[in-house]
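Q: Protein A?
A:
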Amino acid sequence: MKKTPPKSTIPPFEELTEKKLRSLGEKLDKLGDPNGFKHNNLLWKSTNRAAPLLWHLVHHGLVLQTVSSAGMFRILGENTRDVPAADIIAVLRRLPPDMGVLDKGQARDWASYTPGVLTHVNDLITAAYVADPAAVQAVRDELPENLQVAIDFVRGRAGESIPSDSSVTILRHLVAHHLERGLAGNWDCPWIEGGKLVEWRLQSTKDVEQLAARFGSSWAEEALAWILPRVKLFRERSGDISRNGLAGLRLATLSDVIYLFGDGYWNPSSLFEVLDARSDAPAALFAAANKLAEEGTAPFKITTPQIRPEKRAQASSDDEDDDEYGGDGDGDDYDEFDAYGGDDGDGDGEEEDTIEDASGDDERVKSLATILTVVGIERAHAAGQAIPAEMDARIDLDRVYESEAVLIARLRGAMKILGPARTHAILRATLAKEFWYGKAAAFLDVHFDPALVEEAISRLGASQYAPEAGLLGYGTPALVPYLARAQQQATAPDFKARFGEAILYILARASAAGETWDPALDEHVQLDQIAFNYGGSKVDPVLAFLDKLPLERWAKIVAANRERCAGEPDRLVKVLRPDTPPELLDMVFGAVMTKRQAIGHGSLGSRIGAFGPESVAPLLRAIGDAPAENTFMKELERALAPAVFAAVKEGLGKAVETPEQELRRLAASVPGPKVRIYRLRRGEDEPAADSVARIGGTPRGVVTAPVDRKEPMTHILTLDLAQLPELAAQHPGARSLSLYLPDPDTAERHRHGTLVGTTEEELARAPGSIEDAVTLSVEAFDVPEQIFGGGDLEGAAKRVRRIVYGSAGFVGGGPLWLQDGDPGVDPSFLFQFDESLAHINLGDSGVMYVFDGGIDWQCH
């Protein structure tokens, strides 16, 4: 008699039976992904209600049987609404004593408010405590110590009294974690008042300090106690640690502050921020600067025993064939936030951990002495005290860079205090150096002396290296005539360019400060020197100053630059203003049309998009009888407002060239041998059921998908070789090639993908599926072989390469690498494509390259 199968005790979730739920739970437990992306993807394959499904699995004990990854806790912590406290407590019981061991130790580097417990678990505890505080308190003592402290952290945020040991542990952890990693990342850490959550986000160090104040009032003392035994770590990350631990550094001695920064990798603005927060007397600052110069860092040595930096677990490579499903990690005995003064190491101090004392000749030590001197000068001046002449020797400009605006501004201020004679002596001493003399460029106008300026610019012009435009740009408009004259006298193009660029920065800085200058200087404004290729701080201030000029002066500048920008007329477009006179629009658009082949990749910028109908007639006049070439029209469409482009297109009275027509025209115009390629294009419709080519879906003829790590791979696309005769000749007997990848959404194992070939006869053995599939179109083109070679191209060949590379994909020829790779036509190369063809994860603007025998991919 046949036995009746036992009745299921676990209710289904939607259409998922107990068997499927158990299988899903086992798979989730095996996944290793601290972000939870893999877990989420697996859940979404079963339902469009991923979080409720995961909680269903939790409720019935079907997940977290083994815990090796933090990913599921992220999903659970972000989805606690209406979840019973009992289910959350069940999750807490499954946690390891220290979550840092998860994901092979990677979890140690994730944010946490208490030792060994990630922030998403704090979210779980908070939700459970709001729902049923008595239940959470009842289970507290049954849980590991780290979870007990985490529960006390939630109770403390509710205003409850907690054990003093927990308060100390929490305060010290908050201090350590914020100083080393930073907790002010807009983390959500709500208060609990009257049983309700009150939003509180950690957006600044002040917020973190306010949170820590719930657990003790000794933030500053604890911060200093954490910093002093970590000199090496401080020097490596002084910006973050000094900013986050500023309260502690206020309590430190000046000697300790000096040694902490020492010859480390610090930014001048960080040191200024610390010194500005303190009240060290000028005499103390001057004395320390002199001692640094004479004896180096040795006299300031911190005597606190040092803690050796922890060696972090290394994440395995994406493409290694080891087990991806987590494991126990290798850091079970790791104590991330040990007592502040002890030695975490084994006592066998390695040579690389030794802190070497730096001499007074060390460049960073000299910079440290310079900044101490600057702050001392400022404070002495404010107090009406004399500034010893010997301190002038402490001002060293060797490490002044244009990016350090704070340092330059403070140095210029100190020089103004010192007066003309002392300032000029400092600058002449700098100009007399064999190297680094160019650093004087940022200060030439302080206590302006024409003779010194002439002397300095002559020195800069005679160098084998072009002057630093950014440093010269800190000067005032009084320097402009001198720089213009130097530019005229220069013969090297890079010298001419840097002097012209410096003039732009000078006027931009003056404009931003509300200063005015003689309009006669406008003739030296050179739009061909705007560093559009850098953007940001090199461009925005220049455009802002041009925008602020009176219309008449601005229009005169643009018109005067017509010839200067003849080779790059898009520069004129990028400085246009909404109040541009019609005749100037005619000039600018006419200039663009003479070099329209050079327009591409958004080179017209965004400013033209602010124009309305008034730009239509000038554009049509400029285009005139010229053909409506595809790339140029696309650039216009990208740059113009939609209604304006539509009006231009309508007013042309001629057909706009298609992308295919443009590619054929340009390719035919390039001399030399050609090679056949096929551009790939993604359609919008489902393919016919009997079609072979497709993107997505399931290919015809493939009965069983290839497997990676015991899991079936995902079909990406199938090529129909009947449409690709050259490729068919390389694969005799095959009718189709289907690309499969193991995990297209995460990109972790793209290179482990494979191609599956199917013959004409095999197509009938499996019908495939067009569900979630779209059409894949191919079109043949004969293009110059040279576009696949290495090196730069010019003219039409360059444009052909750009068009082919910009295709969604193509078959044949050779790879057009995003990064590095072997150039040239390659018989083993099959095809390449980007995310616009197949919607897979290829990183930042990535491209996949498929060869006979291998798959590669690159991204920015």
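Q: Protein B?
A:
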Amino acid sequence: MFKNYLKIALRSIQKEKFFTGIKIGGFALGIAACLLIALFIRDELGYDTHYSRSDQIYRVVMQAEIDGEMKKSTHFPLPMAQTLEADFPEIEKAGKVYGSALSSGGKRAFRPDAETQNVFEQGFLYGDQNIFEILEIPLLQGNPEEALIGPRSLVISESKAVKYFPNGKALGQTLILDDNASRPYTITGVMPDFPGNSHLDFDFLLPIDDSNASWTSQNYFTYVLLDEKSNVTTLQDKMQSILKKYVIPAQIKRGRDASFIEVLKNIEYKLQPIGDIHLKSDIAMADGLQHGNLRFVWLFAAIAGFILLLACINFVNLSTARSAKRAKEVGLRKTVGAFKSNLVAQFLTESVLFSLISFILGVLTAWMLLPLFNAIAEKTIEMPWTAGPFLPALLISALIIGIISGLYPAFYLSAFRPVSVLKGSLNTGGKSARLRSGLVVFQFATSVVLIIGTLIIYKQMNFILEKDLGYDKEQVVILEGANILGSKTDSFKQQLLQLTQVQKVSASDYLPVEGSKRNQTTFTMVGEGSENAGILSQTWRIDYDYIKTMGMQIVEGRDFSREFASDSVNSIIINKKMAHDLGLEQPLGKQIDNNYRHWTIVGIVDDFHFKSMKEDITPLALCVGSDLGTIAIKVNPGNIAESLAAITAIWNRNVPNQALSYTFLDQRFAQMHKDVLRMGQIFNSFAFFAIFVACLGLFALSAFMVEQRKKEISIRIVLGAPFQAIYTLLTWDFLKLILLSILIAVPIGWYMMHRWLEDFAYRIDLGWQVFLSAGAIALVIALFTISYQSISASLTQPLKSLRSE
């Protein structure tokens, strides 16, 4: 029996090639899109799940409510890890790592001892010995129990070992960092490359200098491995004792006033599961890591479901629309004794066959598109052919989707009465037509929502990239690894200023973009005593030319100047936000203190953005200092290649053993928002998939409608109906459905994108123009889709359709 069903299904495919192609093609595209999204979601949700004891590994977080705002941090004093392990038996191991907040963005000049030419590598991380056990880092070469004991030991990844040493035999080799041959590092271990879906991404692990065991400097991520019987809530409560025993006494000894100590008493210590770091970290933590967006993950899951649903709707629509073509077949088969169950089985067999073919084509399409998708998403996802459940899951999914999408058409077609069919009195309108209309409305409402999302994401990204930032990011070349210049820095700057292409030059590791150096301290007003609890502020060390080079604006007071000897000692410039938070209406000349020295405010710089647009501008203080790892060069607009060539020539004269490494400030700014750009590109790609699948169904339905009304159209043409009348007749019914779709989609799209924009402190307004544009685009797409069939029908020769009458 099944063989007979299969034969009939194959004949049906051959007989109705056009509509079968639409069914299978739409299904295949939907499956390809769903599979790519599923692989993406699997990768995002799989972050930090590769640890065998992942449910016992936590990152320590502290939080406190200050002035009605919840502040969070993941940076702790150096003794925190050791104290946690010693004071709480529930903690098996505690370790710490130190990233780029006070280093040069994790980037260093680097070369094997046998080489003379430096290269610029990134991915440097400092850690202690316990990190090997907590993060389960095995060593391919070396002993993990003593890999970071020596002060100048170094563990490198397998890929870097292979890159720089023959056959990857790196153990015992010597490396030179920052061109400092007097402090060589010895490779004491080679570790496997960290998985791509890990929140930590590094290739070089160095030991932490434990000499500054202060409870008042907070720079380290702290991780703990808990005993499997530990109660996390109870442990968190017990951890509050650290404040009373260590933190508060240290701050009192340092001279902090009573108001500051009261703020410290509000701090709570929390344990964040390592699997939550990538997707569930609050932006307020400011940990400097690249995070995913859980809201986007579930949005993509919804899009995947909608795309698959759209493809199923196409199948149902076309199956019921073609009912008249199968009616006589059903009537004859019932007349000769076929039961309804036989017919249902027949149509379900066809549906499952369509689904299996579509799955094969869809999986192959996804496999071919995967490299492009990886490039857009910046992933290294592979098709999991060898994963145990993958192929069986695909087969089961094909069967389930084939059965579900074929149920309604199967029961609908098998319910035809033989007498009505064979008399030619079958009415295929009514309920099935209303169902088709409802499904078209659903398809295009979904499409309009996606169009709204695409437009708003595009407008928000344009807003971010074109917003006045408070500094000029254009035409600024950033030289990295400039600390290798050492005492030549001033001379190098003067040589650059001799170039006609160069306007200004500044040396500072602190840039108004993420991924550069950061340093946060607490400032209080001098003489305010207990009335002022202090504020947290970034403190950047810059040179005398920094503000001018970056195009920042001094709105009150003056810039730093070499003419004032005090500027290099205790003068400070603060931004407007810091002046506001300190309650200073006339800040010039006022003194503030960060427990290192008293500073005199000599200028106010206009607020500028130095974080992502998802965050508000925060207090910032600038002082003259020496951090020379990065040089910013403002060049004239025009021939950038000529400017770079001139800069490179001067660099090579000063640093012949290290190639120039540069980037542009506007590129670094765009890099800050690459997560949103990347998600926007992915969203747009799958929105296109969904709209295209919906259009396939609309195109096929319009073709069927024209075929059904072919004789009516011919009679109208014979009676003198003009082209416009025929075109309007064939398109108006569809346009009414599209207009209804737009009305349904607009409030849904507004709500969804309003929620998305809430992630941004600075965002566009949701004006009516966006929704009008989305509706217009949907109408144009619908008209374009159905116009071919409508125009063809309007220009048809009536005799061809009426010759049999």
